[in-house]
Write a structure and sequence with these properties.
heterodimer, B: 403 residues, alpha/beta, five-stranded mixed β-barrel
Chain lengths: 75, 403
């Protein structure tokens, strides 16, 4: 999950590119099929990443020496 | 205005030897022409001295002789019991003040004194004007901070960074027991539940708030993997929000290494952190809404990409199928032609063959005698008495015996 946003962003950007290529007529069939396959993979990945997950809320604690630690935030 | 060349003979300003103000020669004598200044040279030199000596600064005085022109520019004087200075305030600045203050109003003014060349007049160009009545020291200091931030380019729109589209971790600098934090958590959960919120608690009002906010902002810069920072608090009086107008806090906001949204709830007036931040939000909830995308929107976007992807491929393969079909049609036409032509010749040949067929001769009344072994009887000797044979007539065979 640590890399979620960047990869989601990259997946969606790539998907846009793929869709645009497929929508244009000058992609040859082999290439179109390869793009489609890649697109399906990226779609699946994007959907997985958009799966529900409970937001994690943490609190930063700083000790006297200036060390930072994270602990779950009690609401 | 054209800047005159530096004149090495400018005793009034250049000589440190105590000759300042002494004319180059006695007034009755004709001045030697190389040492006489042009008026423009003198006024330019004076202007330079005035501008360098004073810079931009706050002064306090009473408005006198206010002339507010239709163009939006104001001309007036600022005076106190002993002195006065002519002032001009351009439209770009007067629009921020509203109506022109009447003569006698005491104001604070942020001015840049200069010398106008055409009349050789000392003038103060006013950038900010605040009536002293009803204006606390707080607002004055706020204006001072604002001017300082502006001077350092921290309010420059080109500094604004774009917020990340899909932040993974957001630092929140606010009070840990305020409604602001609760609102941010609720909105974030609802819209983009996969985000991680990292709370950096800070005192947001009262003594020490500014110092504590600075500390918290520095902590944010030390946290790894933070994509965005939200700093804010719920609404309050201008006094409550004072820490968010503090110069050090503003500079700490500007020094954040990631984009920052400032949400200091004040309806009518932005706090200075709002102006320094990459984005200003009216409330903490609004800040959270701007900070994270909406999962439902994102899913819709993915669904639309999915259908475009499928449609794109169908369309692409559709084109190929169409081309194939067209090719198929051409092949078929060619095949049909190739098949039809021989068939016509076969038919013709068949007709010819039929005309030559011996069976047609039988039709005219002839018949053929065929022996048991299949030979055709051609002579009487082929058919001795009692020989069995078959007589072929036009419509069939007749079993026969030679008599």
């Amino acid at each position: 999950m640590a890399d979620t946003p960047d990869t989601l962003s990259a997946d969606l950007r790539r998907l846009e590119e793929i869709v645009r290529s497929l929508e244009s007529e000058d992609t040859d069939l082999d290439r179109a099929l390869a793009l489609f396959e890649e697109g399906v993979g990226r779609l699946r990945a994007a959907r997985d990443r958009l799966g529900e997950a409970e937001a994690r809320v943490q609190k930063v604690l700083e000790d006297a020496a200036g060390h930072l630690t994270l602990s779950d935030f009690e609401e | 205005m054209k800047k005159p060349p530096e004149d090495p003979h400018l005793p009034l300003f250049k000589s440190p030897s105590g000759e300042a103000g002494v004319p180059p020669s006695r007034p009755t004598a004709l001045p030697p022409s190389p040492t006489a200044l042009s008026v423009t040279q003198l006024v330019s030199a004076l202007r330079r001295v005035v501008e360098e000596a004073s810079g931009t600064l706050w002064i306090k005085g009473e408005i006198a002789g206010m002339k507010a022109y239709g163009s939006g520019h104001w001309y007036f004087s600022l005076r106190d019991p002993d002195s006065a200075i002519k002032c001009v305030m351009w439209k770009s600045n007067t629009t921020k003040v509203g109506a022109a203050p009447v003569d006698g109003t005491e104001v604070y003014a942020l001015v840049t004194p200069t010398v106008w060349a055409d009349k050789g007049e000392l003038k103060a160009a006013v950038q900010v004007m605040l009536p002293t009545a009803g204006i606390g020291v707080q607002q004055l200091s706020r204006e001072k901070v604002r001017a300082a931030l502006e001077k350092d380019g921290l309010l420059d729109p080109s500094r604004k960074r774009q917020l990340p589209a899909y932040p993974r971790a957001i630092a929140v600098v606010t009070s840990t027991d305020g409604a602001a934090l609760r609102d941010i958590i609720i909105v974030t959960r609802k819209r983009w539940s996969s985000v991680r919120l990292v709370i950096v608690g800070a005192t947001v009002q009262g003594d020490g708030a500014a110092r504590d906010l600075c500390r918290a902002l520095k902590v944010v810069n030390r946290l790894p993997g933070i994509d965005l920072c939200i700093i804010g608090r719920g609404g309050g009086s201008r006094e409550d929000l004072h820490a968010f107008d503090d110069e050090k806090v503003c500079r700490a906001v500007a020094a954040l290494t990631m984009p920052v949204v400032s949400a200091v709830g004040h309806e009518t007036d932005a706090s200075l952190t709002d102006l320094v931040a990459d984005l200003r939000a009216a409330t903490p909830s609004a800040a959270a809404e701007r900070a994270v995308p909406d999962r439902a929107d994102c899913l819709r976007h993915v669904a639309s990409l999915s259908s475009r992807l499928a449609h794109g491929l169908r369309r692409r393969t559709g084109l190929v199928a169409e081309r194939l079909a067209r090719t198929g049609d051409r092949i078929e036409v060619a095949m049909v032609r190739r098949i039809r032509e021989p068939r016509a010749s076969v038919d013709r040949l068949a007709g010819q063959l039929e005309a030559l067929s011996p069976l047609r001769v039988l039709g005219r009344g002839y018949s053929v005698a065929r022996l048991v072994d299949g030979r055709v009887a051609r002579r009487r000797a082929d058919l001795p008495e009692g020989t069995e044979f078959t007589l072929r007539v036009s419509d069939g065979d007749v079993p026969s015996r030679a008599g």
